[in-house]
Amino acid sequence: MLKSIQDFFKRTMEPEPEGEEEPGHDPVAVAACALMLELAHADDEFTDDERRHIEEAVVRHFNVPPETADELIALADEERRRSVDLFQFTSLIAASYDEGQRMVLAEIMWRIVYSDGELAKHEHYLMHKVSKLLDLRPGYLAEAKKRATTRRVD
After folding, report:
1. Contact, 91 vs 135, CB < 8 A?
2. Per-residue model confidence as pLDDT tens digits over 82-108
3. Confidence (pTM)
4. All domains of the chain, ordered by start, with CATH?
């Protein structure tokens, strides 16, 4: 157990040695994708619709070619599974995105949550937790939710 704790701190606290960064993987895109995956898994059921929504968001919003979207999603899922909390993802996004970009991300996340047609209790809780960590005002979160639910064309 001590080894896994040491590995965690080594991964999250130490800077990457020069030249060892994985090329082509924007850390903010990985963090946002990890949040989307966390929300998709919140109700203990990861559906094909949720996966499709995430793939489309990755391609559209992060300019990732469709053929490499699965690679980014796999990397984000690995990071999500290794993380101990959501702060490492939300802090990077909050520092990198302006309020408008965070609103767009919130809308994407609401679409993922509602992709199965229902809002589970844990999904609702997690969405509010993530929005607080992203420093979104409650009115903005409600606005993003409204846009996501009224735009549904599934």
Report:
1. no
2. 999 999 999 999 999 999 999 999 999
3. 0.78
4. 26-150 (1.10.3680.10)
